[in-house]
Design goal:
single chain, mainly beta, BH3618-like, nine-stranded antiparallel sheet
Length: 148
């Protein structure tokens, strides 16, 4: 077990098997390679840097909010992340949080792609798409707020 400090979540005790490696980091955070995914609720998680307490991203499964969200992974990415049908694949998008629910957005242009089995991941910038870095989540948030 290892200890991880988090500004948002306090001290975390996680197994080394919980670490997710971004071999090239995340754009803008290239020097940070290891993260842990901490579920907040059924919709949101923190992607917390293992060795930098102040580096954490709120992420969500885009398919929970945008049922028609789709893209094709390049052959190079499939090879780089060693993806196959036997290995689990997960997609998350970074969320920009705001105290005003109408201003909460998701970055659909640059999803995080995870090889769940080998615990490696990469943020990919999609090309030839209309997706943007700030897609409003307000419609999905308002429908969820009635359930809580």
């Amino acid at each position: 077990m290892i200890q991880i400090q988090s500004v948002q979540l306090g001290e975390l005790t996680v197994s080394e098997e919980d670490l997710i490696t971004f071999p090239k980091g995340i754009p803008g955070f290239e020097e940070v390679a290891e993260y842990v995914l901490c579920n907040v609720d059924e919709t949101y998680s923190y992607l917390q840097a293992a060795d930098q307490p102040e580096v954490a991203f709120i992420v969500t499964d885009p398919f929970l909010h945008f049922q028609d969200y789709e893209f094709k992974l390049s052959d190079e990415l499939v090879e780089e992340l060693q993806l196959s049908e036997e290995k689990g694949l997960a997609v998350r998008c970074i969320v920009t949080w705001n105290s005003d629910p109408a201003r909460v957005t998701a970055n659909l242009l640059a999803p995080l792609i995870f090889n769940v089995t080998d615990r490696i991941a990469k943020q990919v910038v999609l090309v030839n798409t209309t997706y943007q870095t700030k897609h409003p989540l307000s419609s999905s948030l308002s429908s969820e707020s009635g359930e809580s």
